[in-house]
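We give this protein:

***
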Amino acid sequence: MEHFQISIDGPAGAGKTVLGIFLSQKFNFLFIDSGILYRAFVYYCLENKINFTNLKKLKKIIKTFIVDFKNKDTIIINKTKILNLKKLYRNNINTNINAVSNLNFVRKKIVKILKNISKKNNVIMVGRDIGSVVLKKANIKIFLDASLKKRIERRVNQKKLVNSKVNYENIKTNLIKRDTFDINRKHGALKHVKHEMYFDNTQLNVTETNQQILNLLLRKYKFLQVDND
């Protein structure tokens, strides 16, 4: 029996992760943020003291990289290292993520791992190239979008929860850079694909977005069932 796949793509700040977690809980699917695997690889490189400018060593170590999900909060690296996802957001990982995420040989390996995981589980996967590259045959493809102004506002409010001093212009600059990078990425660029459900949530809050998309999916795909446990 083939497993069910839902892809969610979109720019930074659109609410993909929140939506993905919400739907995964409703349908009892495995939630996967594809970016976690790139972070896990950076962690693996740091643990093995790999220089991120040394492509020869990166090509060698990516061959030994294995990762799987224990649950929504924990991954297993190379079948032995159990790691809470929170540890993958440390500064030393944040500063090195771009060094590997645009390398084609890294992306190929990560895509292969993601595809293998999706063959074993019903999944909801979020990212930039899920519907276009990773899960080309996903049963449902969603592109979640919002205006730049709204996405900046969300990022500002998000950061204010942990830091009262937030620089609006810095957040705006970083989001614009990220959009430009994602759209023009050589491999796995952010783009629209055929048969996707395009949803703009600029005028909606998180709860409204999640509920409207859930209702839309339940109306359109009668076989989907909500897990009420």
Q: What stands out?
A: Residues 104-120 form the longest helix (17 residues).
